[in-house]
Structure formats: C-alpha cells, structure tokens
C-alpha cells in the first residue's frame, strides 16, 4: 500500500496566551515563556497517556533551535524542567512537538525544521514519516491556524515549507485561514494570487 503525505489546515484559538495560562505553568516559568516567539508545547493527552507529554526528540529539536545563530528566534519549551516527560513510540516515525509561532516567523521555523530533519535523518529523509503541527498564532487576536502534516520527511518542504513561506503578516494569516477547505494546489494558488495583488 502506497503512503501519501497529507497537509491539513484548521482554524483554531490556540495562542501563546492559551499555553502561558495552563495550570502546570508556574509564575516563574510564565515570566520566562513570555519572552519566547517560538514555543514548543506538550500534548495534554498523547497516545492514551495523560499529559503534559512531549514526543521523544523534542529536547533535540529545542537544542537545535537554541544553537542557531539567529536573533530572530527565541524558542522555549512550555514546561518546567523537572516536569518534562516524553513518550517514545515503537516505530521509526518522528513526531514533533507542536510549535506555536508568530506569523512573521512562520517561514523561518519551516526552514529550521527542514534543516533539523536533514541533519537528523541524512539519507533516511526519503523513507522516514513524520508528524508535525505548526500553529501560526496572531499576536493581535485570539485566532490562529494549525498546519498539520503527516508524511515523508522529504516532502515536508513541498507541503509545509511552501505554505509557511507565504505567511509573513497578520493579513497573510487571515488569507491562510480562508483556505481551510481547499486542496493543496488551490491553497497555494489562492495565497500566491492574493499576495501578488
């Protein structure tokens, strides 16, 4: 059976504020997280286990982001160090922690995810399946768009990267939210055409 990569977009109300106000985020951590413009968030339930839990490898991705020579990104993990728990699944697929990012950094985070995958997987990039959720959250409203990918790591840039590179502002986020029910090709044409006007 042939595997086909998929990309889903959903409007949501997930924001930085949503996660800063979680009951497991203490005041000290909240004051630290408020400085982040990229936030790795846990699942509150993950494969039947009660959370907060992160997919295995989240710390590797966080350290990869932290070690980039970039003034643009201020990444953090939405959990106290002593409460960090991860869950490894018994297969070769890679699941990323959900990433919340501002519209202006959507293309930047796509670039870093692609670089991380290339570094981690090397030649296995064409045979490894990944799951990824990137939430592009408006800093001005309580609206966001979740870009969810499940597919081959080698197709991440084609599906997610090309979509996130079209989001640079609040207006672009609004345009992206209008494409929820479109297929991949229609979405790219819609976003490219509207941005060109």
What can you tell me about this protein's structure?
With 197 residues, the protein is an alpha/beta fold. The chain has one domain (6-196). It is built from 7 helices and 10 strands. The chain has helices at residues 16-20, 27-33, 58-66, 106-121, 156-164, 170-177, 184-196; strands at residues 6-12, 38-41, 43-46, 49-55, 75-77, 86-87, 94-95, 98-101, 129-137, 144-152. The strands form 2 sheets. Strands 1, 2, 5, 7, 8, 9 and 10 form a 7-stranded mixed beta sheet that branches. Helix 4 (106-121) links the parallel strand 8 and strand 9. The radius of gyration is 16 Å and the shape is globular. The chain starts with 5 loop residues before the first strand and ends with a helix.
Runs in which pLDDT lies below 50 for 5 or more consecutive residues are: none
Let me know the number of strands.
10
Specify the structural class. Answer: alpha/beta
Gross morphology: globular
Describe the largest sheet. Answer: 7 strands, mixed
Number of domains: 1
Q: Give Rg in angstroms.
A: 16 Å
In whole angstroms, how far apart are the ends?
Answer: 42 Å
Number of helices: 7
Q: Mean pLDDT score, rounded?
A: 84
Name the beta content range. 25-35%
Q: Helix and strand string, N-terminal first? A: EHHEEEHEEEEHEEHHH
- Fraction in helix: 25-40%
